[in-house]
Every structure is written in structure tokens, then in C-alpha cells.
TrEMBL record:
Name of the molecule in the record: Gibberellin 2-beta-dioxygenase 1
Keyword Ribonucleoprotein: no
Region span, Disordered: 1-39, 52-74
Protein's UniProt keywords contain Iron: yes
Biased composition (Polar residues): 1-12
InterPro entries attached to this UniProt entry: DIOX_N, IPNS-like_sf
Limits of the Non-haem dioxygenase N-terminal domain: 81-147
Transmembrane segments: none
Keywords from the named record: Iron, Metal-binding
Gene that specifies this protein: LOC111309736
Length: 371
């Protein structure tokens, strides 16, 4: 070992020569070479004053201003126009007239709170484990040492325990599902494609996503993202949400007792890109850097896992009747241009698994399917 060490030392270069002394230490320097702290501060001040006026230090990114989503009502005679405008420009709106009572929404929230009071063993054993259904806990903890938790339930709010009845939550979920199907049908009529769902229970499924944890702006919702057609959230109290829309993060505050409606990625593909979307579920927050723990209930109307997602062709146009041959030819050419697909079709299961397990805060997961 000593011989090996000696050989290594022979190959090390002598940086200071054979007889050179080691470099002087600061304490060995003459006193007149030392610069006082005040002199250093003066030099730094002069340097800063010489910087170009356009050069500035980075500032903290300001939070987006809070806006009120467009309000829609099924009783409005201009519903189709307002629905198409909101859906094609923003991807979200609030429904101010509906059949969901605030009493039912409050009862459902109370039952949702009780789920998070269960022990960890109960949370893991009382709910199905058929992905994405069941209990999910985020291993990443916040400053208080608490992670985020969520439950994904089917439309029946099925559990493995006879002690968890969840009757109010079930009624609330099914009421939102019925309303969601009505909104999808209205969207199809407004945009101009045939509704592939209707009321056929084999063509859609509903997921009630209940999440709890530390929320704030630009935070990923607990439970991961999951693709959907539309999402619905009842506004029980004055509450601000952050939405990751196509235009970036948007801060909105819906009216109390309204239902916040967001269009998902499946709706955007169906409409062949005519509709904007919200990526993932809305995130409840206070804004201005404040965070707090809360429970949110999001109903997602989505597709069965074995579905295939593809752009839908517009319905037949009746207003071509009575036009000339030249006009008909021109109209057909315009339709063909409009009907060019912007997305390739893809497996819903593969897409859902990918967006659930990967973070897409900065990249649109639909980009890989764009033509």
C-alpha cells in the first residue's frame, strides 16, 4: 500500500516548482492590501448604478386576477349561443339554474368529511381497488407533516363496508351525473356533433372524486389527473379556484349555489379542437400565497376504460336544401376543410393511465395525438 501511494505521489504535478514556497495565506498579506467592508459596499453600489436601466432583478410571479365565470341557465333562450361562446373561448362556465339543492350538497359534504376521519386501515379496506376507484394517499407531505388524500367513487358511491351508507353523497352524485348528461347533450347540439353518450349507461361512467389536503395556486390536485368529458363542482360557499386552462392558470370565483362546469380533454377531442378545455380538476385555494386544508367534491363524467377516443364528425346540415349546385359544391369544400381531423384517435385506457401517473402542469398531454 505504501509503495502504491508513493507511485501516485510521483505522478502528481508540482504546481509551485521544486523549491517554491506554498502560497501565502490571507493573514500573511500586508495590511494595506486588505479592503474594508465599507469600501466593498461602495464598489458594489457603483457597479449597480452602471447597469443598464432595462436590467432588473427577477420579481415574484403575481397571481392571476380573479374573475367570475360566465353564467348560463337552461331557461335562457340564447343558451346555445352562450354555451358555444363560453366553451370555445374559455372551456368553463357556471350553471346558475339547476335542480341540486344546497341542503343535499351540504349533507354530501358532511359525509365526505367523515371519510377522512376513518383510520388508515379503514380507508384502505373499505373501498374498492379497481383503478381509479378507491383510496389514494400522496406520499409527499406538506409543512405540517400531512400528505394529501383522495377517494374516487363510482356513481353508486360503493364501499366494502355496511357501516358507510353515504346516502346523501350517492344522491348528490347521481343528481350531478344527470345534470352532466344534459349539459353534454346541449354542448353537442351547440357545437354540431352527434352526442355519442346519450343516456346509454354503457357509453359513459361517472366518478365522484373527493379530495382533501393542502391546496394552493399552481398545485396539482390530490389523486392525480384523470381524463373526462365534463366536470361539475357545487359551489357551497364563497370560494376561489385555480384552473389550468389552455390559456394557462386562471383564477375564478363562482357564485354561491352555482355549479362550476369545466370541459375536459375528451370534449376537446370530440369537438375536433373547437372547444377549449381545463386540464384536470379545479384546485380550491385562497390565493396570495395562503394555503389551507379543505375537502372538494368533483363529479367527472368520463368514458369506460375500454373506450377509444376520436374526433366526431359534425351532424348532417339541413340548411343546404334549396341552394344552387355551385353553392353546394363550395359549401361541401368548406365542410371538408372544417372536418379535417386535428387529432388521431387513441386508446382511452392508455391515455388515462399516462395522465394519471405523470405530471402535465407544463405540457399538454394531448400534444402527442395532434396531427
Amino acid at each position: 500500500m505504501a509503495s502504491s501511494t508513493h507511485k501516485q505521489q510521483q505522478h502528481l504535478p508540482n504546481l509551485y516548482g521544486a523549491i517554491a514556497a506554498p502560497p501565502p495565506t490571507p493573514s500573511a498579506q500586508p495590511n494595506h492590501h486588505l479592503v474594508s467592508s465599507s469600501d466593498a459596499a461602495d464598489a458594489l453600489s457603483k457597479l449597480l448604478h452602471r447597469l443598464p436601466p432595462t436590467l432588473s432583478l427577477p420579481t415574484r410571479r403575481s397571481s392571476p386576477s380573479t374573475t367570475s365565470p360566465p353564467s348560463l341557465s337552461f331557461s335562457d333562450p340564447n343558451l346555445n349561443h352562450l354555451l358555444l361562446s363560453s366553451a370555445s373561448k374559455l372551456g368553463f362556465f357556471q350553471l346558475t339554474s339547476h335542480d341540486i339543492s344546497s341542503q343535499l350538497a351540504n349533507s354530501a359534504e358532511t359525509e365526505s368529511h367523515s371519510l377522512f376521519e376513518l383510520t388508515k386501515d379503514q380507508k384502505e379496506s373499505c373501498f374498492p381497488k379497481n383503478w381509479p376507484l378507491g383510496f389514494d394517499a400522496d406520499e409527499e407531505e406538506d409543512e405540517d407533516g400531512k400528505g394529501t388524500e383522495s377517494f374516487c367513487l363510482d356513481a353508486e358511491c360503493s364501499t366494502e363496508s355496511t357501516n358507510l351508507l353515504l346516502s346523501s353523497l350517492r344522491e348528490f352524485t347521481q343528481g350531478l351525473e344527470k345534470l352532466g348528461l344534459k349539459i353534454i347533450d346541449a354542448l353537442a347540439n351547440a357545437v354540431g356533433f352527434e352526442n355519442p353518450i346519450g343516456e346509454n349507461p354503457t357509453r359513459f361512467c361517472s366518478l365522484m372524486w373527493i379530495s382533501e389536503g393542502l391546496h394552493g395556486e399552481n398545485k396539482k390536485p390530490s389523486g392525480g389527473f384523470y381524463p373526462y368529458v365534463i366536470g361539475l363542482q357545487y359551489q357551497l360557499r364563497c370560494q376561489k379556484y385555480s384552473l389550468l386552462a389552455d390559456s394557462g392558470w386562471v383564477s375564478v370565483s363562482p357564485q354561491v349555489d352555482s355549479i362550476m362546469v369545466t370541459l375536459g380533454d375528451i370534449a376537446q377531442v370530440w369537438s375536433n379542437g373547437k372547444l377549449k378545455k381545463v386540464r384536470g380538476r379545479p384546485v380550491a385555494c385562497l390565493g396570495d400565497g395562503n394555503n389551507y386544508r379543505c375537502v372538494s367534491m368533483s363529479l367527472l363524467v368520463t368514458l369506460p376504460i375500454d373506450s377509444r377516443v376520436t374526433p366526431l364528425l359534425p351532424m348532417g346540415v339541413d340548411d343546404d336544401i334549396g341552394i344552387s349546385d355551385d353553392e353546394e359544391s363550395q359549401a361541401r369544400g368548406n365542410k371538408e376543410k372544417k372536418e379535417e381531423r386535428l387529432f388521431n384517435s387513441f386508446s382511452f385506457e392508455d391515455y388515462a393511465w399516462r395522465v394519471y401517473h405523470e405530471c402535465f402542469l407544463f405540457k399538454d398531454p394531448l400534444d402527442r395525438y395532434r396531427i
